Amino acid sequence: MGKLRHGVVAVVVLASGVVAAGAAQAAPARPDGVGRITDRVAHALAVELGESGARPALGTAPADPRVLDRRGRLAPTLAAANADVLTAKGLPAGSADLLRVRLGDAGMAVALRDGVAPLVAAAPNDDEATRFTAYEPGGRAVTLSTVEVPSRPVFVVDIDVPTATRLGLDVLRRATGTRSIQSGPIKAAGGYWATQVTRVRVGDNQEPWPKGSSEIFTLAGGFGPDGKATVDPVQMPYLDDENRDYHPNQLLVHWNHYRYNAADVVMMEDDGDTNYSALATALATALLTIVDGGAYTPLVTAILNAMPASWWVDDPDYVESWYTLTTQTSGTITGARGTGVMDVRPYWVEEL
Fold this sequence. Notes:
It is a single chain. This protein is of the alpha+beta class. The chain has two domains: 28-159, no CATH class; 161-350, no CATH class. Helix content is 21%, strand content 28%. The strands form four sheets. A five-stranded mixed β-sheet has the order 3-7-4-5-6.
């Protein structure tokens, strides 16, 4: 069953060299991405499995990696790795324990129960890769195919993407000022109009078997009552599988947030490596350059252009976009890329 997935966006940080006392100082080392961090965790867990001889049962549901640390020796390693993951994703220090481990495929459970020694691997970041590294108990590296599911069980280390996305959208809201938006001129006495999604379907390509679930979120963009461009992040945690209809009845655009009767929607996904601080900074910078000239300006292009070209080899992944929704927009609307479809309708939100 295919999960929603695209190519991933890597954040490139440029540092300027500083010359002091006639010698150039080296720029600080760039922090490791999520993939490198989880690979280190996978190796550490494999070494521990080899030394302990344990064969723990593990399902396809994500679990705390400490379930594989039967002797409790990896607590400092796992704590440091989790702190590094939060830094790599641009999330507040200590905000969550994001590391997770799971069985790579449900069909591996039988071999695991029969006592077959499992491999341990980090979920690969590159959707286009055909091979990735796993570790034998004891730590010896082996190469696996991302296309063919092995008969030998594989414990896959990745992160809690739903929790990371929830925290990341809070970072976006703070950076883009959406929490401070006041009621705009479209609000009527006793309530306001919103746009409700009654059905949504997104098509995508089949992802490699070791990849975990992604997390979809949308950025609803428009001009706030103060005339400044703004983006309102909306999490869509239910939208897991490609080519499947979902009926969330979710409010997507809150029209009391906007000055004009028009807004754009950009749908994206986080499949593990998104740096929300970097994304928030890029979006906030891009929005500052957009001036309200007395007529609505579409924001989809501005949002996408906020991301350097180098980001499009890693995530956050661009999924789909819809231009110029209004308070009257109703019925089936197809995205600009042709891969996403939504049924929407106006919805009156009454005051209590």
